[in-house]
Structure formats: C-alpha cells, structure tokens
Amino acid sequence: MQRWQDLSDVPADWPQSVVAIGVFDGVHYGHRTVVGHAVALAHEHGVPTVVITFDPHPDEVVRPGTHPPLLSTLDHRCALMAELGVDAVLVLPFNRDLASMSPDDFVDHVVVERFHALGVVVGENFRFGHRASGDLGTLVELGRERGFTAAAVPLLAGQGGVWSSTYVRGLVQAGDVRNAAYSLGRPHRVEGAVVHGDHRGRELGYPTANLAPAPHSAVPADGVYAAWLIVAPYTAHSVSYPAAVSVGTNPTFDGATRRIESYAIDQTELDLYGAHVAVDFVDRIRGQVRFDSVAELQVAMAADVAAARVALA
Questions:
Q1: Residue of 177, 138, 190 whose CA lies nearest to 308
Q2: How far apart are the first and last CA of the chain?
Q3: Which domain CATH number covers 121?
Q4: Which residues form the domain of 72?
Q5: Is the peptide bond before 93 cis (omega within 30 degrees of 0)?
Q6: Predicted confidence (pLDDT) per residue in 216-270, tens digit
Q7: Model's pTM, two decimal places?
Q8: Are the C-beta atoms of 211 and 272 separated by less than 8 Å?
Q9: CA 194: distance to chain centroid?
C-alpha cells in the first residue's frame, strides 16, 4: 500500500480512483464498513481505492485545545487500511488553509484533480469545507457536476450503541477495554517508545517496560490489564509477548506520574529501552489499589499475572 503525507506526493499520473474520506480514528467497525464499501466499488470498476485521512485531528485546528484522545496512531491506522485492501492512503495535513477551503475547492483540488474520482464514499454524518458547510447533499451535487458518484454509509450500532470514535473513547477511558475491542474488531492499542522509569519492577520480581505513549493517545483508566506487548510493530521482525500491564501512578509508592508499565510474562531478561512497542489491551483485571506494604503488592502482582495468563490463553 502506498502512503502519502501531502497532495504533492501523489504521482501526477495516478489513475481514476474510488475515494473514501474521513478521520477514521481507530478504524472501528463503522469505519470498516465505509472503507469496505469503497473497496468493493473500486473492485467493481477495476480501479484503486484511496483513503483520505487527516493529521492533526481537525478539532485541534478548528477549536485549539480540544484534540480528542486518539484511538490509533497514523502508522496503525494505515496498517489497518492495508488489511482492508486499500491501495493508497493520503494523510492530508489539516491546517487553517485546508479548514478555510470551500466544499467546491476541496472537491476540485483534492478529489477530482488528484484522484480523478469516479466514486466517493463517506459516513452519513460527514461534513466538509469551511465551517463544515458541506454535507452529503453538497457532495452528491458536486459529484453530479464533476462526474463522480457520492455514497454515504449509514452509522452502525452494536450492543452498546452507535459505533463511533466518541463511543469507543468513552469505553477506553472507563477501562472497559473488552467492549472497546468488540467495537474496534480488535484490542485497543497504545504505542510509543520504551523509556526509563523507577526501575522498581525488577526489584519486585516483575521487570517492566515503561511506555511513553504517542501524543494524545487514548490511555485506559488506571488499573491492571491483560494485554499483548508487541515489540517493533508493523515490521517483519515484530514479536508479541503476553503481558500484565499496570496503568496509573503507583500509589503504594506515592507516585505522582501516570505510567503504562508492561511485564512480559516469564520474560526477565528483555532489554527494550528505546524500542518502539505497542500494547494491545485485552481485558481489565482490577482497578488501581494502594497497598499497605510491598509484600501485599507482590502478592497482588502474582495474582495479576496469573489472571493475565488466563485471559490471554
């Protein structure tokens, strides 16, 4: 799959395409339905599928300081798109110039001139252009004038409500990673570099990788989780380890800094400092607890690891 970081990266001879447009944060079931519709239409016409997404999140530009917690990094988002059969992803830099574009200009300069779209697929709540003045009706009319069809995929609902990024973020922030995984179609992932912490885990018998998450990551509520620790995700030499993961401030030691600390079960000699890792949260074992002694904490940690083994078996 090709990935472009700007319109100027798109090859001048790129052919007619079917284009799906949206932020697609998390690529949850609703997003997958939109993208899947685009892929099917592209296959029908024998043309490539292009996804246009945005970075940073439009909210941060339109309303500075309101950047929502992100359910996926760009690397993860693009990897998920590739799994869906997408041929190319354009990560369009969202800035003031783009935000001030009229719906007509956006369609002309992005959709038509660059991708010669014969079909555009969006979610039914899609808005675009200056002050979100364009909607599906606008897109249909512009398509009629410029030679492409426009289709909107209805919002889908699961067991807990409409599948939306906002809904999934709420589940993650509540620590309900099991239902978040149901809506995402996979475990919720947080990723970043392994950095030095207090080096206390090794002294307790459970050496941990201290993760510095990517900016604006949606981090689950404080507690202990069963998860998969993935070293070097998106590479040919990626390795996964079952893990017990602590999210929180370590109140037993009067900690003040919130951390994500992963113990790779039965792995006591891993040296991951500086490595890029991902944590895929599978289930919540318990909430954060302040213990009266280190001995009590060690007993709880042993129980956490045992529970993680069961959850990941």
A1: 177
A2: 33
A3: 3.40.50.620
A4: 2-155
A5: no
A6: 999 999 999 999 999 999 999 999 999 999 999 887 777 778 999 999 999 988 8
A7: 0.92
A8: no
A9: 19
